[in-house]
Amino acid sequence: MQCVMTGWSISLLFSAFALSTFASSTLHAMEYVEICNRENSCKKFSRLIMGTDHLKQSDWTYDGEPEKNDEEVYKILDESARLGINLFDTAPIYVGSVENRLGRWRASRRDLVLKNNFYASADLNPDRKLYALSKGGFPFDLYYAKHLAPGTHSERLQEELQRLGVLTSPTTSLNNVPPGTYASRLYGSGEQIKQRVLEEITNSSSQLNEDITIYLMHRDDGDFVGFQPLEREQTPVRNLMEALSAPEISGKYWMLGWSNWKTDRVNESIDLAGENPALAKPAFNSPYFSLFEMSSRSIHAGGIQVTHQEMMDPNFQKGIKLSPYSPLGGFSILDKPEPRWENTKKAAKKKYDEGDAYWQNVFRAIFTKANEARWKRVVKFTGEFNAKHGTTYTIDQMINAYALAHPRTDFLTVGPITLEQLRRTVGSLKLARMLTPKDLEYLYSGVPSSSSEWTE
What is the pTM of this model? Predict the structure, then answer.
């Protein structure tokens, strides 16, 4: 696929997840992780989780790219299942009503996935089921809503909106809302939180045939103005877990999890569930994790990352499965035949200068000197690795494998949007098994081992 460098396509840049080198010998190498709930009901999930966020999005990898029709989307989903992926990541806010389409696709393939000859290898997808991971807890996007949703909102948010002249008491109408302004859905009384989440999960459950396997709170409690968090007390973790454990909500998912939650609150949730069997036990956490770390500025409001050092620690967030993501997944920086950091940075800066609020955020979060150095290292390392092992892995494959090879990466949320990308992504599992801890340290920090050829 020929990728055209555009501002939009940069949002596919730096993928730890979207692309990898394809080798036919690795097609059947899907790995599975077994998870059991309190009732000792167990499921085996593919280590690669298929993200659907951009499957139908137009202009995503190049200008003029058309939106995929259902047949094209189904073809990619079919291939992912054929290659052994059985857990699919979606959300009600994803482009093109893809949550609904995923639900219809799963229903239409229920019998087909039972047959051995559907798969590239008969040992794939041992459960012979297609599982759905959906999300709730999305804050209200005030830039589009133009009003505060009914119910309680934090005084801190209301004060800031009034200071900016966005909110005029006593009305709830908003004027001239800055991009990146959000009101928490997880703030207020337990009953209010429960009702707000119940509305979300009821909608998602309907779209997914009343069958949500894993349900993530995609943000923790927090308010934001101009993409920046407002300092205030958060809703206690216990209060959130009590609301999410209410039968009206917990009866709609098999397991609960988090996305973009800080480590101290993740750990607290694990402890609370261990102490109180009445609380839903969180099984998953999905943070940002990439060779390209965010600066002190997050790429999006409420984005929480984990670091190389943390993911190398077997005891980090012990008691929960980690499934990292990178919303910058893709390949524009990896254009062939000459991948160039400078080209992508220039295109991102163009969007920044045009006043695109999203790219003004991303530019400051990602285009750092440290990440530029990591880019140069991964280019050099990939060439030397291939020469040593007689392989043909590409740079994006190496970035993908870097994330997979960390001891605390239980799963990896991937975002391929073409058959070629999908097949190559599955091949990344083999490369990940070839990387050593010293390789990972070199790629991250540039520190070579005394016995390694990886030198600056």
Answer: 0.90
